[in-house]
């Protein structure tokens, strides 16, 4: 549950307007989160699910292939440790 909230909180923070910057588009926010996922800062499987939910077509930067739900589930199950962001 914490991993889901972490990804959603970061996405919300990036996509919301701030007094010091314009909001990121959903595509930009997902790309920033993808970079974080590459370093293990956020759960990749949760991120892929969020990307699909917000309608962002994404690809797995590691292979260049479209992200499949099977791959996302596999990565999600492998990433069960608590994340600190």
Q: What Rg, in angstroms, do the CA atoms define?
A: 12 Å
Q: Main β-sheet, in a few words?
A: none
**Euclidean distance between termini CA atoms:** 15 Å
Count of beta strands: 0
Average pLDDT rating = 79
Order of helices and strands: HHHH
Q: What is the helix content?
A: 55-70%
Q: Segments where pLDDT lies below 50 for 5+ residues?
A: 68-85
What does this structure look like?
Helices cover 55% and strands 0% of the residues. By secondary structure, it is mainly α. The protein starts with a helix and ends in a 7-residue tail after the last helix.
Keywords for this entry:
85 residues; 4 helices; globular; mainly alpha
Brief write-up:
The chain is an all-alpha fold and 85 residues long. It has helices at residues 2-15, 26-38, 44-53, 69-78. The chain is built from four helices and no strands.
């Amino acid at each position: 549950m914490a991993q889901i909230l972490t990804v959603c909180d970061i996405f919300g923070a990036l996509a919301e307007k701030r007094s010091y910057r314009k909001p990121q588009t959903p595509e930009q926010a997902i790309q920033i989160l993808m970079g974080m996922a590459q370093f293990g800062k956020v759960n990749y499987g949760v991120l892929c699910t969020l990307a699909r939910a917000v309608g962002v077509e994404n690809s797995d930067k590691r292979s260049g292939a479209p992200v499949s739900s099977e791959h996302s589930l596999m990565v999600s199950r492998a990433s069960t440790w608590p994340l600190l962001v």
